[in-house]
Design brief:
Layout lengths: L2 H11 L5 H9 L32 E3 L2 E3 L2 H8 L1
Antiparallel strand pairs: 1-2
């Protein structure tokens, strides 16, 4: 396989990096992999999709107010 062909093969396998590239790939028959998650508790020692939860414990401070999760921040702002 030539360098040009191997580069094209890598490009075909790469995740799209723009909306236009995504639309083009989907129209060509590619199916994206979705990350479905529920819950905020780790299932092992490594970080997983639980960190995408609004309830994941990742404290931060905004304007002097400390929030233990993103959900607390959203409720405070309502």
């Amino acid at each position: 396989m030539s360098e040009l062909e191997s580069g094209a093969a890598r490009h075909a396998l790469a995740e799209p990096l723009s909306v236009e590239a995504l639309v083009e790939r989907v129209r060509a028959g590619w199916a994206p992999k979705y990350v479905l998650f529920w819950g905020n508790e780790a299932k092992g020692r490594e970080l997983g999709t639980e960190c995408l939860s609004q309830w994941y414990p990742a404290a931060f401070e905004v304007e002097g107010v400390r929030f233990p999760t993103a959900e607390h921040f959203m409720m405070h702002r309502k």
